[in-house]
Structures are given as C-alpha cells and as structure tokens.
Amino acid sequence: MTGGSASDSIRHAITEHGPITFAEFMEVALYGPGGYYTSGSPISADGDYFTSPSAHPLFGALIAVQLHEMWQLLGSPEPFTVIEEGAGHGGLAADITEYVAVIDKQFATALRYVALDIAPPAQQHYPVSLITESPTGITGCLLSNELLDAMPVHRFEVSNGELHEIFISHDGEKLVEILQPPSTPIIEERLRPYLAYLPDGYRGEMNAGLDTWASRQAGTLDRGWALTIDYGFERPVLYRSDRTSGSLRTYYQHTLGQDPLKHTGDQDITAHVDFTAVEEAMDIAGFRICGFTTQAEFLVQLGIESALDQLRAAPSPRPAKRANELGARSLVDPEGMGGFRVAAYSRNVPESRLTGFGQHTQTAARQFSQPPLLSPRRHIALRGSQLSGSAHFEVQTLDELSSDRP
Fold first, then answer.
1. pLDDT digit string, tens, across residues 245-267
2. Residues 6 and 21 both lie in one domain
3. Is 0.70 surpassed by the pTM of this model?
4. Residues 6+ away with beta carbon under 8 Å from 303
5. Which range marks the domain in which residue 345 is found?
6. Helix, strand, coil abundance in the chain, percent, nearest 5
7. Less packed terminus of the chain by CB within 10 Å, N or C?
C-alpha cells in the first residue's frame, strides 16, 4: 500500500469527527493502513535511517553480555526469556542470539528469545512475530531499542502565556495545524512546573501513552529487568526554554526534517523520549530504576574497548578492518548514537546491580576473544569504509536530532 491511504484515512477522520490530536495523526501515519511502519522497511540500505544494531554486531554482542549477567544474578533460570518489542527485521535479535553461544553454551540453551513487531517485514534476519498478546509472568528481560521515540505524542504550544494543544485539521487542500485547549489533563500536569519559563511560541511534545506501556510491561514480566535504549533527556533538559521548536523530527529518503504533515505515511516521525516520564510510569507499574547512563558509557563498561583492540589485531584485510572499526566506533560516538540513553528497571529482583551501569568493578572485556564482524547482509557500513557488497550510510548527530534548525 502507498502513503496515500494513510493520508486518506486521516482526512476521512477529520471530515467525520473534526480536528484530531497530533497523537491520533501520528498513530495513523506510522501504524495505520499504508503507514510508514506497515508498508516499508525503514532500516535498510534503501530505508531512511540508521540504528545501532545495523551499525555493528558488537551492539548486540554487548547486550548479550549484559543479559548473561542478568541470567546469573537470577540464579541461571531455565528458561530465561527475552522479549524484544519493536524488533523490525530481527537484526538485533540475530546478533544477540548468535553471540550468546560464544559467551556460555548453558546460557544459550536457557535463552528463549521472542522478537515482536507491530508490522514484521517480509525479509527477516531472525523470526519476528506480530505483536498480539505478549507472554505473561516471564522471568528474564524486556528489551527495546529506539521504540519509545516512535510512540505517538501530543504536541503543544505556549501562546500568550497559556498552554494550547496542536491539533491537525485540513483546509480543503492540505493538512494544517490549529490550536485548541488540551485534550487531556496530563499535558497540563506535566508542563505546569515549566510553563512560567517557556517563551511565547514555544513548542514541544508529550507522550501520554507511557503509563499504558509500563502497565503492559508489568503484566509481561514477573521477575527480571526492562532495558530500554533510546534518544531523549530527563524532563528539565527536554523542556529547556531555548529548545523552542521541540524535538519532533522526520526522516524521508535519508533526509532529516521537521514537517510531519508532508509525505504522510512515507516518512518516519519521532520525538525525544522524556525519561523522567518513563521512570515515573515504570515506578507506578512496580518497577525500580537501577541504571541510567549513555549508550557510550554502557558499552564501555561492558568491554567495547577490548573488543576494538581485538578487531584491530585481527588478521583481516585493511578495508574490512576499517569498516568494522568505523561501525563499532559509531556506537560510542558521544555526538551520535553514543549519546543515546540506556535505562534499566528491575522487578522483583533482590540483586540488581549491573555491569553496564558501572555497578560492578569487573567488566566483561574477557568475553571478546572472538568479537563479531560486520555482515553485508545484515549490517550497513558507514561512509568512509570500504566493506565489499555493503551499502553506506551517514549517522545523524545529536545536535542535528535536537537542534531547533530544520
């Protein structure tokens, strides 16, 4: 299906019911019939953006190391279930499950990995199932990478010192924005402490769906951890007064933009995660935060520098060596994906200190006598490398992702 059907659905909803919230618009544009995630493969050589799992298999390998430690802390249960929501084509799942056997064959036997997505693509690197009903009462880990940034958000604008919500309507020719009173009191409750400091014309986003998401996590996990990786900030930084255009961004044909009403159904729409709101929602759902850091620090604590040393020492051709080093280094680049946030929440776990958050003195560097290598079939090489048969991609910096400039 094409993006036109998503646009038609939105226009029909506005005609039938009047202006819709931006969250309703985003839900249809991304996840409705003909929506961005239901009609394409955004993470690919032909897609619109680049992720840590597609940069280098070390990302999955290091997460596997952290999962192994979680399994040990729980007393090595069998099964140890990992549920990855928003798994896409299963690249991260494949990297994790392949490296688990290198770490510990007993752990590989105990591991039950479930990859889920709202619209599993036809081409998959690991079996990905449609999200219908997640298992309940599991022992293990709930894993997500760049999932929360794609959840529908409400948008707001400060006008004459008052808070208004941005709704979507159409003028007979095109979709347009209009301001109306907030559709839910959650918007005012969350923004009230900051409203006095936000200048007139200030725009931002607010995710009202986190409580539902956290409640679902609690229904799935009986004992273990939720580990989420995404780009975003804690609330005082997210709603900083000089970030006047908010954090909403679009991706269309490898191009970063800020106009969500263009290319409806054919472009990605994301917003930075409010990690304060995530922690609040998880706390209400019965989780306890046990780690919060940057992706760079998380991967360093788990031994990526040792892995890089092994890659440099490997007897491989120079182009392949350069491609692997560039991909692995991009994971810890503080101006790019290394600046993403990693948060861990525990549930019914007496011992929750995790190496990835610097809570143990011994790192997992010893695991990397056999660091995984880029696969042209599964990974996308960065520009500047010369990996044969692989497409190339540029990574957006955090400045570009959070700048007020289009």
1. 999 999 988 788 989 999 999 99
2. yes
3. yes
4. 62, 65, 363, 364, 365, 366, 367, 368
5. 40-151+207-231+272-402
6. 35, 25, 40
7. C
